Sequence to fold (143 residues):
Amino acid sequence: IVRTAWNATVVDELERGARKILDQYQIKKVKVLTVPGAIELPFGVKNFWELAKKKSRPDAFVVLGCVIRGGTPHFDYVCRAVTDGVVQLNLQLPVPVIFGVLTVDNELQATERIGGSQGHKGEEAALSALQMIAYVEQNRNRK
Fold:
């Protein structure tokens, strides 16, 4: 899990949801890295991958963050940059990088996505990671 320190109240809950799913599936080795904000998420993933010894590299990354629209175009730039960064990582790394970043207009929308009417996006991100790990393994076994 690579997560942001920014909007910590929301991101803490995203992480709790992700950990809940990983615990349910008895995933024992979970490392959490914290970067300052959403823009830094792709770098956090890439840096960890490059510096980790081969045996300690993860089978997937889950990136968690929350970007809340403000009164300037900054929101659009941040959302585009983090989305593009995660897409590039998915094309470059041999493991999946799951996008668990909320991009919302306000705090109410964020709350709805951490266990409210829109489900729990942290849980969904962890489930996606597990599904993608299985997908990669299935394809590896086809060789």
Observations:
- The radius of gyration is 15 Å.
- The chain has a mean pLDDT of 96.
- Helices lie at 8-24, 41-51, 74-92, 107-112, 121-141.
